[in-house]
Amino acid sequence: MIKVGIALLLIAINLWTVFRFWQDKQRALSREPRIPEADLLGLALFGGSPAALLARRWFRHKTRKEPFSTQLFAIFAVQCGVAIGLASYALT
Predict the structure, then answer these.
(1) Is 51 within 8 Å of 18 (Cβ atoms)?
(2) What burial class does residue 61 get, using C-beta atoms within 10 Å of its C-beta: 0-12 exposed, 13-18 middle, 19+ buried?
(3) What is the pLDDT of residues 15-70, one digit of tens each?
(4) Cα maximum dimension of the chain
(5) What is the end-to-end Cα distance of the chain in Å, rounded?
(6) Contact 75/44 with Cβ under 8 angstroms?
(7) What residues does each domain of the chain span?
């Protein structure tokens, strides 16, 4: 049951992350106040990094922005490392 809850939470975080990237892109186009980069990176940090990477491509948003891009890829790399570590631990 806990695994299902975690999976649902990650799905929700990723959907919210896509929405926030889309919303920030719309605000950028209409010159409205933007969503802080720290908020977008925070969503990535809490499990939304796959959605953040996809949303960047889908919406062509923040694809060349530094240090945002480097920070986002670093978050994703650390999360991949943790996931691989947990998976290998679970298999032993």
Answers:
(1) yes
(2) middle
(3) 999 999 999 999 999 999 999 999 999 999 999 999 999 999 999 999 999 999 99
(4) 53
(5) 22
(6) yes
(7) 2-91
- Between these two residues, 91 and 13, which has the higher pLDDT value? 13
Q: What is the DSSP letter of 30?
A: T
| Residue 54 token pair | 């996809």
Residue type, 15: L
The two structure tokens encoding residue 86: 């947990």
Question: Could you tell me if 35 and 24 are in contact, meaning their C-beta atoms sit under 8 angstroms apart?
Answer: yes
Helix (H) or strand (E) holding 31, with range, is: none
User: With b meaning 16 or more CB within 10 Å and e meaning fewer, what string describes 29-39?
Assistant: eeeeeebeeee
